[in-house]
Amino acid sequence: MTNPTAAIGIDIGGSSAKGGLVTPDGRIIAQTSVATADHDERETVLANYEQLIHDLLTQAGRLNLPVTGIGVGVPGYLDESGRAMIYGNVRCLEGFPLGDHFAHRFGLPVQLDNDANCAALAEYYWGGGEGCDRLLVATVGSGIGVAVMINGKLLRYTYGTTGELGSIVVDACGGKSAFLGGQGGLESVASSRAMIDAAATLQPRPNNVAELADSARSQEPAAAIIRQAGWWLGIGIASWAAIFAPKRVLIGGGVAACGDLYFNAVRKSAFDAVPPYYKPGLTIAAADLGNQAGFMGAASLILLKPE
Description:
The protein is α/β, with parallel strands linked by helices. The chain folds into 2 domains: 6-118 and 292-303, ATPase, nucleotide binding domain (Nucleotidyltransferase, domain 5), CATH 3.30.420.40; 131-287, Nucleotidyltransferase, domain 5, CATH 3.30.420.40. 36% of the residues lie in helices and 21% in strands. The chain contains 9 helices and 12 strands. The strands form 3 sheets. It has a 5-stranded mixed sheet. A 5-stranded mixed sheet has the order 10-9-8-11-12, with helices on both faces. The chain has a two-stranded antiparallel sheet with strand order 5-6. The longest helix has 25 residues, at 220-244. The relative contact order is 0.16.
């Protein structure tokens, strides 16, 4: 009988990093997180990440659980070497060889991938996309990250990703600019950031999507903001469906806090707009793994070595 093993998965975001100790069957043995800020110096950010990894290695040691490597999901593209992030939203890490840095620091194999890819891998292996041969996973937070898996393999068209599907133009005439600078992109109207911006005049003003969802229980203006964002995401899904023909669309990220109010709006607009050929068999649902998907998928880079 072989001894159990685990991998460390790290999900790097703009304001925090989450990490977990994950086994090959998708069990989370331990998890933790650290706060960071995009304006922090690189040394400070790296020290926070290293402390997170150290804490997880310490817990693995207490359990006598061998750690086989470290997988890292980054909020951006990877360079040609696959060892550094480019065009991401943690600007102090732009071009920095994060994979080599962690490998040298901890003496373990390290694999990097895009954070949306990691979320899709986790849902495919252990979540709501398990076994689906045409899977699209959208992570909707301050931005919108999307990954597509066909027959268990990630589509890697653009710098190792499916592409910036959150930047497809849906409102060129009246839309605002989004993170990448495009005018009228989906992120500018359907992301959690877009919802909070639209809620600026509400009293009390919500600071995040969870607070907006709470307000929506008693304030119609708050509910209308959530429905509108869901409507826009449905338009995006209809467009993606005509390109990728997914059988299952899973939506994760902070918008999950908005519940049925949001998801019903998403489904209605998507099924109203999707070309009829792509509608039969298409399902749209909340992702299963919540905010654990990112680090679980990152761990799968080591545990399951996906293509």
